[in-house]
Amino acid sequence: MNRLLLAAYPEPYRSRQGAELPACLSEAYPGRSWPPPREVVALARAGVQARARAVVDDTARTAGWSPSCSPCS
After folding, report:
1. What pTM value is reported for the model?
2. Taking burial as the number of CB atoms within 10 A of a residue's CB, which of 13, 59, 60, 66 is the most buried?
């Protein structure tokens, strides 16, 4: 279960904080193999958002753009 939820997150996030999420879920919902559906949806959505941020950050890095060199600053 926890590995399935973690799969929604990008690999760098999983390697940094992968042990924290299962520990937190097992503490918050003792004796349950899955958290409540609302929590599952929230975790999956957060994982997809983290993946999207990782793609945008990577695209910005490879394009040479950074917020510090924005023409509006």
Report:
1. 0.67
2. 13
